[in-house]
């Protein structure tokens, strides 16, 4: 099975780690500090999950998932350019400025996307955007929703997208639910979908949902 590094030990990172480890992958959770490790919820990750600093995680894992805050991810990952060279970087974050109530507000990269910015900063890395159009609990349990959800995939490298599609299958996503939108520029469409999310959260709370296609 694949060695997967996840940068970020918050709810998104640990949730993905637990499911991927349960399907047989060895997962490394990359923390920024010892304090972040100690604060991370580890009860759902299991014995196949280990911790390391983010640079070690990026260097040793075969595939790296960015689950760090999107508004600061570009500088953080650009600093790991050497470690990420030749690897697949799965970006699941959204880059927004916080609104007054702490929910997502305006986009950090209007007319572009975090994924495009990451690809430009990491030319030797295959960036694939996915899983950023839903609440974190749906990422690893899409069948929890009453209607079939959609997960979108954007990236320049076809092999990288096929590899990521396989990981989505491990997370429970059926092939019919996976929508390949095309190259990395299409990520600006899915990242813009975050603009609807705070309005849904304010009205309905953190009930699981995904922004999906209906056919």
TrEMBL record:
Keyword Transcription regulation: no
Regions that span the bilayer: none
Start and end residues of each Pyrroline-5-carboxylate reductase catalytic N-terminal domain: 4-94
Keywords recorded for this protein, A-Z: Oxidoreductase
UniProt cross-references to InterPro entries, sorted A to Z: NAD(P)-bd_dom_sf, P5C_Rdtase_cat_N, STEAP_metalloreductase
Residues covered by region (Disordered): 31-53
Official protein name in the record: NAD(P)-binding domain-containing protein
Organism: Streptomyces griseoloalbus
Lineage per the UniProt record: Bacteria, Bacillati, Actinomycetota, Actinomycetes, Kitasatosporales
